[in-house]
Amino acid sequence: MPNAPVPDRTTLDDTENSGEQTWVFDVDGVTYRHNDPFITGGEIMDVAGIPRSQGLVLCHDDGTQETIAEDQRVRLVPKPRFRKRPRFKRG
User: Which backbone phi and psi does 31 adopt, to 5 degrees?
Assistant: First the structure.
């Protein structure tokens, strides 16, 4: 299962049985595995169960954040951290 949640591991992971390389990323504290070093924002949202209308944010190590578009390709090395974009209520 290439996009199943997994325990936290290093960025580049050799699976024990198959010898295939996988890349991992975190979304809202849950770690997922992917079989390619690139993934789109839309694919990340689908795997993590985030509605595409809500959006996705990449959290950089220096504390800055970057909004990731559905069709934007993201490199999974080093292990990136994402979270769903917060919703603001007016009123």
Answer: -95, 135
- The structure tokens 């169960």 sit at 49
Domain that holds residue 79: 12-84
Q: Kindly report the number of other CB atoms within 10 A of residue 54's CB atom.
A: 11
State pLDDT tens for residues 27-82: 999 999 999 999 999 999 999 999 999 999 999 989 899 999 999 999 997 777 88
4 belongs to a structural domain? no
Check: CB of residue 41 under 8 Å from CB of residue 11: no
Residue 46 located in a structural domain: yes
> What CATH number has the domain bearing residue 39?
3.10.20
Whole-structure pTM over 0.85, yes or no? no
